[in-house]
Specification:
single chain, alpha/beta, Arc Repressor Mutant, subunit A, Rossmann fold, three-stranded antiparallel sheet, elongated
Length: about 250
Amino acid sequence: MTARSQMRREKISALVAERGEVSVEEIASLFGASHETIRRDLATLEDAGFLLKIHGGAKRVPMLTEGSFDERMGENRAAKQSIAEKLAGWLPPDQTIFMDTGSTTLVGAEALAQTTNLRVVTNSLKIASTLSSGADGPEVFLLGGRLERGNLETLGPTTIEEINRFNTDLAVITIGSLNATDGTSDYSFDEAQVARAMISRASRTVVLADHSKFDRRAAFQVCPIAEIDVLISDLTPGAALASALRAAGASLL
C-alpha cells in the first residue's frame, strides 16, 4: 500500500467517524478516486474495524456497551493473566503509580501483590484490598470520593481532587476501546474522567488492554494515541493500529 492510499484511508475513516454515514459517490468526489478504489478502501477499513460498509457507502461503527464487573472478570481471563505477568516483569523498581478500576488492572494488581518498593494510588477498593492482602507488598493509597457499589470504586469531583494531590511515575489504566482514530475510550463518563486525571498527574501512561479492545469505539475518550507511552497486551495489534502507536512513540509489549 502506498503512502498516498494510506493517507486517503485515514481521511476516509475520520470523515465517516465525523459524519456518521457517507456515500461512495461523495467519497470518490472528495478524493478524486474511482468508485472501485473507494470500495476497496472501505473493505480494508471495515476489516480493520474502523467503519461498517453499507449499500452505496459506509457508516460509523456503533458504540458498544460492556457487561458488569463480575462478567468482565470472567472474560478473556487468560489474556488478562498474560498482561498481568508482562506488567509485573516490565515494571521498573521503586515506582509510584496510579491504577484505575477495571478487570484487567485488578488482575494486574494480583501479579503485583508481593512487589516491594512500590507505591500504588487507586480508586478501586478491590485493587487496594488485593495489594494489601499479604504481610509485605506495595504501599497503597486509596482515593476517596463517591462510592460506586457495582465496581467498588470511588468516583466524582472528590476523587479527581485527590488525584491532583499526587505526582506519579506511571498511570496504569485499563480502557474500553483502542483504535487509531480515537485513541483510548471508555464506556463510563466518570471512569474516563478518573483515568484522564491520573494521566495528567503521571510522567508516563501505560495502557493495559487485551486484544478484544482493539479497533472498537466507546463513548468517552480517555487519551489520544499520542499520550500512550506503553501498551501491554496479550496480542500485537493489527497493522494500522500498531503503526499508529509506533509512530506516536509508544512501546508495545
